[in-house]
Specification:
Helix Hairpins; elongated; mainly alpha; 45% helix; 118 residues; 4 helices
Length: 118
Amino acid sequence: MTTERPDLYAILGLAPSATQAEISHAYRSLLRQHHPDTRAPIDEPQDAVSDQALQQVLAAYAVLRDPTRRAEYDREVWSRTHPARRPQQPPKRYGTPRRPPIAAGPVLWHRAPDPPAP
């Protein structure tokens, strides 16, 4: 039995590149739509569906509003959708971390010869 996490971005109706402001806006909009206090009395047959949708919206927002948890979720989704590929590391720069690419020693200054006397 596999317990695959739902797509949190799809629950909020957003793209994975959404900003924090877009996430908050979508959350508030869906919260108003599914909250029990804002439902009409004629929607009683839909209460169970709205309650489940509200729980999903709350869970999605709890993860996506926190930058650390959002990054962990994105890494998990990336590894699940691209099992053979790893995220690319930035290219290595010149030299090693312990040693700069060019080493210069101390500078030795020599006094220039005096100009000839007239």
